[in-house]
Specification:
- The protein has two domains: 226 residues, Spore Coat Polysaccharide Biosynthesis Protein SpsA, Chain A (Alpha-Beta Complex), CATH 3.90.550; 63 residues.
- A seven-stranded mixed sheet has the order 3-2-1-4-6-5-7, with helices on both faces.
- The protein contains ten helices and seven strands.
- The chain starts with a strand and ends with a helix.
- It is elongated and about 85 Å long.
- Helices cover 52% and strands 16% of the residues.
């Protein structure tokens, strides 16, 4: 089998060399043919030149497009390089190359997608807000997939070329979408415990904990909107329907007791709330039809 280790990188000149060196050392002890590729997402430092110096195949974006677009490029080049197994890891060195054989072994045992679960392994350091966000994402994905996923946000994963061929259309994240699509296509998913080391330097993904929390919840709403539109729009519709129903019952009570209502603004409010609820539910049905 041919293994392609793919590494997305953006301004990682301080760590990219050690990641490549350690990865090559681990894979050289195995019997498989392998290559290491780096997709440089518009770095302004020496990330690209250092990766080339260490023997990686480097593909460069002309500017920074973000993780989701970089992942699509990684998949395209990995398949172009005839990968049978694709190992995805990060350029910051927080995932350890020594855990790569665990991922490969699960693929050899019949898994299609293997997730490196940080929470089952050891985490040297993770800010509380990020830990809570990761847990919330995992619970959300588990509910949508109807399958227990312990670490849906992990960037350390291995998958077959068949899983790699699944379309990833998201513009905000690839980690959850790949899991959801793999489950729905009935691919076998497993998780293995991995070590998560403390990052050297500041994380570019967690500059502000409040900003991270807001973005995390926005992404969770997006996931529900895209993959569970009936639940998403149904819940929003209820927010308008319930007060409309309550006001409507109150008006009926007044009519039954006094024989008249005499509250035109309240009647208009009931009609408005009910109408909005029905429209939102209609959006949900349309979105569900389009998704299928």
């Amino acid at each position: 089998m041919k293994i392609v280790v793919t590494i997305p990188a953006f301004n990682e000149e301080k760590t990219i060399a050690s990641v490549i060196i350690n990865t090559r050392k681990v894979l050289s002890a195995l019997k498989h043919n392998f290559i290491i590729q780096v997709v440089d997402d518009g770095s302004k430092d020496r990330t690209s030149s250092i990766a080339k110096r260490e023997g990686a195949i480097v593909y460069s974006h002309p500017q920074n497009y973000g993780l989701a677009e970089t992942f699509r490029s990684e998949i395209k080049y990995a398949l172009k390089n005839k990968a049978d197994i694709i190992i995805h890891t990060d350029a910051d060195g927080q995932y350890l190359a020594r855990d790569i054989p665990k991922l490969i072994k699960e693929i050899e045992n019949g898994a299609d997608l293997v997730l490196g679960n940080r929470f089952k392994g050891k985490i040297e350091s993770m800010p509380l807000i990020k830990r809570l966000g990761n847990k919330a994402f995992s619970r959300t994905i588990s509910r949508i997939c109807k399958k227990r996923i312990g670490d849906a946000q992990t960037g350390f994963r291995a998958f077959t070329k068949e899983v790699a061929s699944l379309d990833i259309i998201s513009t905000h994240t690839y980690t959850q979408e790949q899991i959801i699509r793999a489950v729905r296509e009935k691919f076998k998913i497993t998780e293995v415990p991995v070590y998560f080391a403390k990052r050297n330097g500041k994380s570019r993904l967690l500059k502000n904990p409040f900003e991270y929390a807001i973005k995390a919840w926005i992404n969770i709403f997006r996931i529900y909107r895209d993959y569970e539109p009936l639940k998403f729009f149904g819940t929003i519709g209820l927010i308008f329907f319930i007060p409309g129903l309550a006001f409507g019952i109150w008006l009926l009570y007044l009519f039954s007791k006094f024989g008249f209502i005499g509250r035109t603004p309240t009647i208009l409010l009931v009609v408005l709330l009910m109408g909005i609820a029905v429209q939102i539910w209609a959006f949900g049905f349309i979105a569900d039809m389009i998704r299928k």
